[in-house]
Write a structure and sequence with these properties.
It is a single chain. By secondary structure, the protein is mostly helical. It folds into four domains: 165 residues, Neurolysin, domain 3 (Orthogonal Bundle), CATH 1.10.1370.40; 58 residues, no CATH class; 180 residues, Neurolysin, domain 3; 168 residues, Neurolysin, domain 3 (Orthogonal Bundle), CATH 1.10.1370. It is 56% helix and 5% strand. The chain is built from 28 helices and seven strands. The strands form two sheets. It has a five-stranded mixed beta sheet, with helices on both faces. A hairpin with a 5-residue loop joins strand 4 and strand 5. Helix 11 packs antiparallel against helix 22, helix 13 crosses helix 21 and helix 16 packs across helix 17. The longest helix is centred in the middle third of the chain and has 32 residues. The chain is globular and about 80 Å long.
């Protein structure tokens, strides 16, 4: 290719095909996208119209090879837009996202291609068999069997939904910037670390950037109740004006699409492909945990209110994190400000996260200063086997910036595939507040856990060992994709790992046993609140996506009279009340107008998956403990970690979607999952779940 944008379509000559970020020009993206779609259309036509009998090689493997240029430019563009957005990138996304949806529909609506996929005999190996089953289901779920007229309607719906999802995310980012609370006096920020106050300072004020969830981390430190209130209220105003109508239209279109494809609701449509398999199983999980969670939260609230009143203060929802931290320090000797001094980011990463991975999987992670990331502060690391064989690249992008969307996530620039001969290039992203120049970033225990969590996703991508790109790494159901990441969280507080990385930033002292004991003792403190806010968000997600087309139409009609935001707030209140989760002091982790997971991301009807995966994680980590690889004083623990890690890598991390998920867990655990470890972890041991859950 001689076009100026060819570099976006061709494999990079850099190691592991790392994109040459320095060469990228924003104006090249649109022509690259259009050319890539043309090339993919040609490949699909060649496969579908092949006069030879359909074989695995000339149909399915050809399909797996197709679209390389489109995959490449899409990976680069959407990773950059999420991490370093701009009006120019947003404008490109607004134009191209519906076009990509139409392009995707055209492929799945190609009846000749669908027939050839069905006719092509799959090899006997499990991965190939699963790929064929997945492709047939995927084409059906995209409307391959609909009439031409219905295919056209479905394609219009998908294009509109793609545009709305993009609009939701853009609006949320704009509101997150606009509503970030501003303070005129540093005294209003008393309680925050000096580095954080310095980072908040602008020419004329102090601005606290908002994070994605309802509760903001600074609420646990701000001493001024009015400052806490302002932060909390600003958080919940996001999207109230900009996203309310978007939400109502999205749920309407999703409900309409589900019925067209033969499902009662969008939730049924989504969960049919998850490991949960059916909506009732998810509903039981949420409903069974709700009573114990709200009861525990009420008990916690009583203690917090007493502490606030003793200090001469009132207590309300914005104050919960602050008094929770006060009571934790009082009752468990856990001083969160002091605790941060043991967790400098670089130390946590190299001596904790990477060290644990080396002990478990025999891999090493080293910096590649010769390779450039896509923005300042992005570091490139090379991951290798113990014998020096290259596995792939990891990019880390941990600090927040105004152009980065909220939250933390893992994504890929290149997926592992033996068929394509590609090795993985993955990225971990967070939004940690950037400290002043020269100062280290000191992490809260929640941020430490998140670093381990996102690297668990990275391991899922890096250690993938499959043939087909469709089956690679994290290309698995939502309620399975979180299993490896949540398993990896456990190593953050594992004594062998913790004492290796938790060293005081000033003295170099290893974290003392008394502080570790306090952390362990406090591990269930706050679980009532944490479980309740999570369940509340999951209930809202499931409620929105369990609506029939008729119900969404009635909401839309009502919105014409009272306004879209009023309809949403009433709907939320009714859904939470029905689940027994209505509380004046515990808000959902995300409210609908800033619930990016389900309206701007891929978790619609799937936010429950974190809890579903935690049941797997709690039981799975119990296996690590039982075989002596964790929480052990055995002198041979390190050897046992390597043996257990090799088994987890082989059965879970390496397989991607290439093996049956329930069987993989059963092979690891020796039985089906047991929810008891989850209940104990969350302090809900008195709850009773259905055996099928």
């Amino acid at each position: 290719m001689n076009s100026s944008y060819a570099y976006l379509l061709e494999p990079s000559s850099l190691p592991y095909q790392l994109p040459d970020f320095a060469a990228i020009k924003v104006e090249d993206f649109l022509p690259a996208f259009y050319r890539a779609m043309e090339l993919h259309d040609f490949e699909i036509s060649e496969i579908a119209n092949n006069p030879e009998l359909a074989t695995w090689e000339n149909t399915v493997e050809a399909l797996e090879r197709s679209g390389a240029e489109l995959n490449r430019v899409s990976a680069i563009f959407f990773n950059l837009q999420g991490t370093d957005s701009s009006p120019e990138l947003d404008a490109i996304a607004k134009e191209i996202v519906p076009k990509l949806a139409a392009h995707n529909d055209a492929m799945h609506h190609n009846s000749q291609l669908f027939q050839r996929i069905q006719d092509a005999p799959a090899p006997a190996d499990e991965e190939s068999q699963r790929l064929k089953d997945l492709l047939v289901r995927r084409f059906k779920r995209h409307g391959a069997q609909l009439s031409s007229a219905d295919k056209a309607i479905l394609s219009d719906i998908n294009q509109r939904l793609s545009a709305l999802g993009e609009e939701f995310g853009t609006n949320l980012l704009a509101d997150t910037r606009r509503l970030a609370p501003s303070f005129s006096d540093a005294a209003q920020l008393a309680g925050l670390p000096p580095a954080l106050i310095a980072a908040a300072k602008t020419e004329s004020s102090y601005v606290l950037p908002l994070e994605l969830p309802t509760i903001q981390a600074v609420q646990s430190q701000l001493q001024d109740p009015e400052s806490r209130r302002r932060v909390y209220e600003a958080s919940q105003l996001r999207g109230a004006e900009s996203n309310a109508e978007v939400v109502l239209e999205m749920v309407k279109l999703r409900a309409q699409r589900a019925v067209m494809l033969g499902y009662p609701t969008h939730a049924d449509y989504v969960i049919a492909e998850e490991t949960a398999a059916a909506v009732p199983a998810v509903s039981r999980l949420l409903n069974d945990l709700a009573p114990a969670a709200i009861t525990n939260a009420a008990g916690e609230e009583k203690l917090l209110q007493e502490a606030a009143n003793l200090a001469g203060e009132d207590f309300s929802a914005p104050d919960w994190p602050y008094w929770e931290a006060i009571v934790r320090e009082r009752d468990y000797a856990v001083d969160e400000a002091e605790l941060r001094k043991y967790f400098p980011l670089e130390q946590v990463l190299q001596d904790g996260v990477f060290y644990a991975a080396e002990l478990l999987y025999g891999i090493t992670v080293t910096k590649r200063p010769d390779l450039q990331g896509y923005a300042p502060g992005v570091t490139v690391w090379e991951v290798k086997e113990a014998d020096g064989t290259g596995i792939g690249l990891l990019l880390t992008d941990y600090f927040g910036r105004p152009s980065k969307r909220g939250g933390a996530w893992m994504s890929s620039f290149v997926d592992q595939s033996k068929l394509l001969g590609t090795l993985p290039v993955v990225v971990n992203v967070m939004g940690i507040v950037q400290p002043p120049a020269g100062a280290p970033a000191l992490l809260s225990i929640d941020e430490v856990t998140t670093v381990f969590h996102e690297f668990g996703h990275a391991l899922h991508g890096l250690l993938s060992d499959v043939r087909y790109p469709t089956m690679s790494g994290t290309n698995v159901p939502r309620d399975w994709v979180e299993f490896p990441s949540q398993i990896n969280e456990n190593w953050a507080l594992e004594p062998q790992i913790l004492t290796h990385y938790a060293r005081h930033i000033e003295t170099g002292e290893v974290i003392p046993e008394s502080l570790i004991a306090g952390l362990n003792a406090a591990s269930q403190w706050g679980q009532g609140f944490g479980t309740t806010e999570y369940l509340a968000a999951s209930v809202l997600d499931l409620a929105w996506h369990s609506l029939s087309p008729g119900a969404t139409k009635r909401l839309a009609e009502k919105a014409k009279t009272v306004g879209a935001y009023a309809v949403i707030t009433e709907f939320e209140a009714e859904a939470l009340s029905a689940a027994g989760l209505n509380s004046d002091t515990v808000a959902p982790r995300y409210r609908s107008t800033y619930f990016n997971h389900i309206f701007g991301g891929g978790y619609a009807a799937g936010y429950y998956s974190y809890l579903w995966s935690e049941a797997l994680d709690a039981d799975g980590f119990a296996w690590f403990q039982e075989v002596g690889a964790a929480n052990s004083t055995d002198s041979e623990q390190l050897a046992k970690m390597r043996i257990a890690g090799a088994r987890f890598r082989d059965l879970i991390l390496a397989k991607g979607a290439a093996s049956d998920y329930q069987q993989a867990f059963k092979d690891l655990r020796g039985r089906d999952k047991d929810v008891t470890p989850l209940l104990k972890r969350r302090g809900l041991a008195g709850s009773e779940l259905h055996p099928s859950d």
